[in-house]
């Protein structure tokens, strides 16, 4: 998995207290990558764009 061109952004659901920080790179073709911002050289989860959309859509909070 080549992540050299990944543009990482912090999730809007991450808190600002130094914990629970998730970064997402969704600028890569055929891949959405997710990592812990506190460990940028650590493991990365990789999803297809379709799987990622299904995950994000199914985990939206209800009003």
TrEMBL record:
Entries under InterPro entries matching the protein: DUF397 (IPR007278)
Superkingdom as given in the UniProt entry: Bacteria
Pfam family, one: DUF397
Record-annotated DUF397 domain positions: 6-58
Protein name: DUF397 domain-containing protein
Organism taxonomic ancestry: Bacteria, Bacillati, Actinomycetota, Actinomycetes, Micromonosporales
């Amino acid at each position: 998995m080549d992540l050299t061109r990944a543009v990482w952004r912090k999730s809007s659901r991450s808190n600002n207290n130094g914990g629970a920080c998730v970064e997402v790179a969704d600028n890569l073709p055929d891949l959405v990558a997710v990592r812990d911002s506190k460990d940028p050289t650590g493991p990365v989860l990789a999803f297809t764009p379709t799987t990622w959309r299904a995950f994000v859509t199914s985990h939206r909070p209800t009003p």
